[in-house]
Amino acid sequence: MSFSELIAVYLFLGGASAGAFALVALADVAGCVWGRGRAVSGVLRAPCATIPESTRRYVQTFVYGTGLVSILAGVLCLVADLGRPEAFYYLFLYPTNSLVSIGAFALVFLSVCLVVALSDALLRLPLAMRRFVSVVKLAGIPVALIVMVYTALLLKSVIAVKVWQSPWLSVLFVASALSCGCAVVMLAACACEDVRAMRLWHHFLIPADVAFIVIESIAAIALLVSAKNIDSVAFASLMDGALSIPFWIGFVACGIVLPFIAEMILLFAGRGALASTAAVLAVLVLVGGLCLRISIVACGVAPLM
Per-residue pLDDT tens for 112-121? Predict the structure, then answer.
Protein backbone atom coordinates (compact mmCIF):
# COMPACT_ATOMS: atom_id res chain seq x y z
CA MET A 1 0.00 0.00 0.00
CA SER A 2 1.23 3.50 -0.87
CA PHE A 3 -0.35 6.91 -0.53
CA SER A 4 -0.35 10.22 -2.35
CA GLU A 5 -0.31 13.62 -0.69
CA LEU A 6 -4.11 13.70 -0.97
CA ILE A 7 -4.30 11.32 1.98
CA ALA A 8 -3.04 14.11 4.24
CA VAL A 9 -6.29 16.00 3.66
CA TYR A 10 -8.28 12.91 4.62
CA LEU A 11 -6.22 12.39 7.78
CA PHE A 12 -6.78 16.01 8.77
CA LEU A 13 -10.53 16.05 8.09
CA GLY A 14 -11.09 12.69 9.78
CA GLY A 15 -9.05 13.59 12.84
CA ALA A 16 -10.53 17.07 13.32
CA SER A 17 -14.09 15.78 12.87
CA ALA A 18 -13.56 12.94 15.33
CA GLY A 19 -11.91 15.25 17.86
CA ALA A 20 -14.70 17.83 17.69
CA PHE A 21 -17.41 15.17 17.98
CA ALA A 22 -15.73 13.55 20.96
CA LEU A 23 -15.45 16.84 22.86
CA VAL A 24 -19.00 18.08 22.23
CA ALA A 25 -20.59 14.64 22.68
CA LEU A 26 -18.74 14.25 25.99
CA ALA A 27 -19.97 17.69 27.08
CA ASP A 28 -23.53 16.80 26.05
CA VAL A 29 -23.56 13.45 27.87
CA ALA A 30 -21.87 14.90 30.95
CA GLY A 31 -24.35 17.77 30.98
CA CYS A 32 -27.27 15.34 30.91
CA VAL A 33 -25.82 13.21 33.73
CA TRP A 34 -24.82 16.15 35.92
CA GLY A 35 -28.04 17.98 35.19
CA ARG A 36 -30.08 14.94 36.26
CA GLY A 37 -27.97 14.60 39.42
CA ARG A 38 -28.44 18.24 40.23
CA ALA A 39 -32.20 17.91 39.82
CA VAL A 40 -32.22 14.97 42.24
CA SER A 41 -29.76 16.15 44.89
CA GLY A 42 -29.92 19.91 44.46
CA VAL A 43 -26.16 19.96 45.03
CA LEU A 44 -24.42 18.82 41.85
CA ARG A 45 -23.84 21.51 39.27
CA ALA A 46 -23.09 21.14 35.59
CA PRO A 47 -20.99 24.01 34.21
CA CYS A 48 -22.43 23.56 30.72
CA ALA A 49 -25.96 23.77 32.19
CA THR A 50 -25.40 27.51 32.65
CA ILE A 51 -25.12 27.95 28.88
CA PRO A 52 -28.48 28.86 27.29
CA GLU A 53 -30.12 26.05 25.35
CA SER A 54 -30.25 28.09 22.13
CA THR A 55 -26.48 28.62 22.30
CA ARG A 56 -25.81 24.96 23.05
CA ARG A 57 -27.94 23.94 20.09
CA TYR A 58 -26.12 26.38 17.83
CA VAL A 59 -22.70 25.04 18.83
CA GLN A 60 -23.94 21.46 18.49
CA THR A 61 -25.39 22.15 15.04
CA PHE A 62 -22.17 23.84 13.89
CA VAL A 63 -19.87 21.11 15.22
CA TYR A 64 -21.95 18.08 14.24
CA GLY A 65 -22.82 19.56 10.84
CA THR A 66 -19.22 20.53 10.09
CA GLY A 67 -18.03 17.15 11.33
CA LEU A 68 -20.42 15.27 9.06
CA VAL A 69 -19.43 17.30 5.99
CA SER A 70 -15.73 16.89 6.84
CA ILE A 71 -16.05 13.13 7.30
CA LEU A 72 -17.79 12.76 3.94
CA ALA A 73 -15.21 15.00 2.24
CA GLY A 74 -12.43 12.97 3.86
CA VAL A 75 -13.93 9.73 2.59
CA LEU A 76 -14.01 11.20 -0.93
CA CYS A 77 -10.31 12.03 -0.58
CA LEU A 78 -9.63 8.46 0.57
CA VAL A 79 -11.57 6.99 -2.36
CA ALA A 80 -9.77 9.30 -4.79
CA ASP A 81 -6.43 8.25 -3.30
CA LEU A 82 -7.30 4.58 -3.74
CA GLY A 83 -7.82 5.29 -7.43
CA ARG A 84 -10.55 2.64 -7.58
CA PRO A 85 -13.90 3.66 -6.04
CA GLU A 86 -15.05 0.04 -6.02
CA ALA A 87 -12.17 -0.79 -3.66
CA PHE A 88 -13.88 1.21 -0.91
CA TYR A 89 -17.13 -0.64 -1.60
CA TYR A 90 -15.35 -4.01 -1.29
CA LEU A 91 -14.23 -3.07 2.24
CA PHE A 92 -17.86 -3.39 3.34
CA LEU A 93 -18.79 -6.26 1.05
CA TYR A 94 -15.86 -8.39 2.24
CA PRO A 95 -14.93 -7.17 5.72
CA THR A 96 -11.63 -8.33 7.23
CA ASN A 97 -9.64 -7.65 10.38
CA SER A 98 -7.29 -5.30 8.51
CA LEU A 99 -6.73 -1.73 9.67
CA VAL A 100 -8.28 -0.34 6.50
CA SER A 101 -11.46 -2.39 6.96
CA ILE A 102 -11.80 -1.55 10.66
CA GLY A 103 -11.22 2.12 9.94
CA ALA A 104 -13.81 2.14 7.16
CA PHE A 105 -16.49 0.71 9.48
CA ALA A 106 -15.47 3.19 12.22
CA LEU A 107 -15.91 6.06 9.75
CA VAL A 108 -19.38 4.84 8.80
CA PHE A 109 -20.46 4.41 12.42
CA LEU A 110 -19.10 7.85 13.34
CA SER A 111 -21.02 9.32 10.39
CA VAL A 112 -24.21 7.70 11.71
CA CYS A 113 -23.53 9.13 15.17
CA LEU A 114 -23.03 12.58 13.63
CA VAL A 115 -26.33 12.32 11.74
CA VAL A 116 -28.20 11.32 14.91
CA ALA A 117 -26.53 14.05 16.98
CA LEU A 118 -27.20 16.66 14.28
CA SER A 119 -30.86 15.65 14.17
CA ASP A 120 -31.07 16.13 17.93
CA ALA A 121 -29.52 19.60 17.64
CA LEU A 122 -31.86 20.70 14.84
CA LEU A 123 -35.10 19.14 16.09
CA ARG A 124 -36.87 19.09 19.44
CA LEU A 125 -37.08 15.35 19.92
CA PRO A 126 -39.31 13.69 22.55
CA LEU A 127 -37.76 12.54 25.83
CA ALA A 128 -37.48 8.87 24.79
CA MET A 129 -35.63 9.85 21.61
CA ARG A 130 -33.30 12.19 23.51
CA ARG A 131 -32.28 9.32 25.76
CA PHE A 132 -31.54 7.23 22.69
CA VAL A 133 -29.48 10.09 21.24
CA SER A 134 -27.48 10.29 24.50
CA VAL A 135 -26.68 6.58 24.21
CA VAL A 136 -25.59 7.07 20.58
CA LYS A 137 -23.37 10.00 21.54
CA LEU A 138 -21.82 7.99 24.38
CA ALA A 139 -21.16 5.06 22.03
CA GLY A 140 -19.73 7.42 19.43
CA ILE A 141 -17.00 8.77 21.74
CA PRO A 142 -14.83 5.59 21.67
CA VAL A 143 -15.56 5.27 17.94
CA ALA A 144 -14.24 8.80 17.46
CA LEU A 145 -11.11 7.79 19.38
CA ILE A 146 -10.72 4.78 17.08
CA VAL A 147 -10.94 7.09 14.05
CA MET A 148 -8.28 9.38 15.55
CA VAL A 149 -5.94 6.45 16.20
CA TYR A 150 -6.79 4.90 12.83
CA THR A 151 -5.51 7.96 10.97
CA ALA A 152 -2.05 7.10 12.33
CA LEU A 153 -2.34 3.32 12.03
CA LEU A 154 -3.29 3.71 8.37
CA LEU A 155 0.15 5.19 7.74
CA LYS A 156 1.78 2.61 9.97
CA SER A 157 0.40 -0.13 7.71
CA VAL A 158 2.99 0.94 5.11
CA ILE A 159 5.90 -0.93 6.65
CA ALA A 160 8.35 0.33 4.03
CA VAL A 161 8.29 3.81 5.60
CA LYS A 162 10.28 3.60 8.81
CA VAL A 163 9.30 6.97 10.24
CA TRP A 164 5.63 5.91 10.18
CA GLN A 165 6.43 2.91 12.39
CA SER A 166 7.15 5.05 15.45
CA PRO A 167 4.64 4.43 18.29
CA TRP A 168 4.68 8.19 18.91
CA LEU A 169 2.87 8.80 15.63
CA SER A 170 -0.44 7.59 17.11
CA VAL A 171 0.00 9.79 20.20
CA LEU A 172 0.85 12.77 18.02
CA PHE A 173 -2.15 12.34 15.71
CA VAL A 174 -4.63 11.77 18.56
CA ALA A 175 -3.40 14.85 20.47
CA SER A 176 -3.47 16.90 17.27
CA ALA A 177 -7.00 15.68 16.43
CA LEU A 178 -8.24 16.69 19.89
CA SER A 179 -6.54 20.08 19.59
CA CYS A 180 -8.13 20.59 16.17
CA GLY A 181 -11.43 19.50 17.70
CA CYS A 182 -11.06 22.23 20.33
CA ALA A 183 -10.44 24.69 17.49
CA VAL A 184 -13.63 23.66 15.66
CA VAL A 185 -15.72 24.03 18.83
CA MET A 186 -14.01 27.34 19.57
CA LEU A 187 -14.95 28.66 16.14
CA ALA A 188 -18.54 27.61 16.76
CA ALA A 189 -18.55 29.42 20.10
CA CYS A 190 -17.04 32.54 18.50
CA ALA A 191 -20.03 32.79 16.18
CA CYS A 192 -22.46 32.92 19.12
CA GLU A 193 -24.18 36.23 19.74
CA ASP A 194 -24.20 35.54 23.49
CA VAL A 195 -20.76 36.76 24.65
CA ARG A 196 -21.18 35.22 28.11
CA ALA A 197 -21.95 31.80 26.63
CA MET A 198 -18.97 32.11 24.27
CA ARG A 199 -16.63 32.80 27.19
CA LEU A 200 -18.07 29.86 29.14
CA TRP A 201 -17.19 27.57 26.25
CA HIS A 202 -13.72 29.08 26.02
CA HIS A 203 -13.30 28.70 29.80
CA PHE A 204 -13.26 24.92 29.30
CA LEU A 205 -11.76 24.73 25.80
CA ILE A 206 -8.60 26.78 26.37
CA PRO A 207 -7.19 24.69 29.29
CA ALA A 208 -8.06 21.51 27.39
CA ASP A 209 -6.27 22.76 24.28
CA VAL A 210 -3.20 23.70 26.33
CA ALA A 211 -3.04 20.13 27.65
CA PHE A 212 -3.44 18.67 24.15
CA ILE A 213 -0.72 20.98 22.76
CA VAL A 214 1.70 19.90 25.51
CA ILE A 215 1.09 16.23 24.71
CA GLU A 216 1.39 17.01 21.01
CA SER A 217 4.73 18.75 21.55
CA ILE A 218 6.17 15.86 23.56
CA ALA A 219 5.02 13.35 20.93
CA ALA A 220 6.44 15.47 18.09
CA ILE A 221 9.85 15.71 19.79
CA ALA A 222 9.88 11.97 20.47
CA LEU A 223 8.91 11.28 16.85
CA LEU A 224 11.75 13.47 15.57
CA VAL A 225 14.24 11.69 17.85
CA SER A 226 13.11 8.29 16.59
CA ALA A 227 13.13 9.53 12.98
CA LYS A 228 16.72 10.68 13.37
CA ASN A 229 17.71 7.18 14.43
CA ILE A 230 15.64 5.08 12.00
CA ASP A 231 14.96 7.29 8.96
CA SER A 232 17.60 9.93 8.35
CA VAL A 233 16.10 10.96 4.99
CA ALA A 234 12.70 11.76 6.48
CA PHE A 235 14.35 13.50 9.43
CA ALA A 236 16.47 15.69 7.15
CA SER A 237 13.50 16.65 4.98
CA LEU A 238 11.59 17.82 8.08
CA MET A 239 14.48 19.63 9.75
CA ASP A 240 15.99 21.63 6.90
CA GLY A 241 14.83 20.03 3.66
CA ALA A 242 11.89 20.55 1.33
CA LEU A 243 9.35 20.04 4.14
CA SER A 244 10.96 22.37 6.66
CA ILE A 245 8.61 25.29 5.88
CA PRO A 246 5.29 23.44 6.37
CA PHE A 247 6.72 21.62 9.38
CA TRP A 248 8.40 24.49 11.26
CA ILE A 249 6.21 27.41 10.20
CA GLY A 250 2.94 25.61 9.56
CA PHE A 251 2.96 23.01 12.34
CA VAL A 252 5.42 24.17 15.01
CA ALA A 253 4.83 27.94 14.82
CA CYS A 254 1.13 28.08 13.89
CA GLY A 255 -0.07 24.90 15.55
CA ILE A 256 2.08 24.77 18.69
CA VAL A 257 4.04 27.85 19.73
CA LEU A 258 1.67 30.74 18.97
CA PRO A 259 -1.53 29.09 20.32
CA PHE A 260 0.28 27.85 23.43
CA ILE A 261 1.72 31.28 24.29
CA ALA A 262 -1.57 33.07 23.65
CA GLU A 263 -3.64 30.56 25.62
CA MET A 264 -1.24 30.59 28.56
CA ILE A 265 -1.45 34.39 28.66
CA LEU A 266 -5.24 34.15 28.72
CA LEU A 267 -5.13 31.57 31.50
CA PHE A 268 -2.77 33.61 33.67
CA ALA A 269 -4.80 36.76 32.98
CA GLY A 270 -7.90 34.93 34.19
CA ARG A 271 -10.17 36.23 31.48
CA GLY A 272 -11.79 34.86 28.39
CA ALA A 273 -10.62 35.61 24.89
CA LEU A 274 -12.35 38.03 22.57
CA ALA A 275 -14.20 36.39 19.71
CA SER A 276 -11.67 37.68 17.17
CA THR A 277 -8.71 36.47 19.23
CA ALA A 278 -10.23 33.04 19.80
CA ALA A 279 -11.07 32.72 16.10
CA VAL A 280 -7.48 33.52 15.09
CA LEU A 281 -6.15 30.96 17.60
CA ALA A 282 -8.56 28.33 16.28
CA VAL A 283 -7.51 28.95 12.68
CA LEU A 284 -3.83 28.71 13.65
CA VAL A 285 -4.44 25.36 15.34
CA LEU A 286 -6.28 24.02 12.28
CA VAL A 287 -3.52 25.23 9.95
CA GLY A 288 -0.99 23.53 12.20
CA GLY A 289 -2.95 20.27 12.17
CA LEU A 290 -3.13 20.24 8.38
CA CYS A 291 0.56 21.13 7.97
CA LEU A 292 1.51 18.38 10.42
CA ARG A 293 -0.20 15.73 8.32
CA ILE A 294 1.11 17.16 5.06
CA SER A 295 4.66 17.05 6.46
CA ILE A 296 4.40 13.54 7.93
CA VAL A 297 2.79 12.05 4.82
CA ALA A 298 5.16 13.81 2.42
CA CYS A 299 8.30 12.82 4.33
CA GLY A 300 7.31 9.18 3.96
CA VAL A 301 5.97 9.36 0.41
CA ALA A 302 8.94 11.22 -1.10
CA PRO A 303 11.50 8.40 -0.59
CA LEU A 304 9.09 5.96 -2.30
CA MET A 305 8.59 8.13 -5.38
Answer: 999 999 988 8
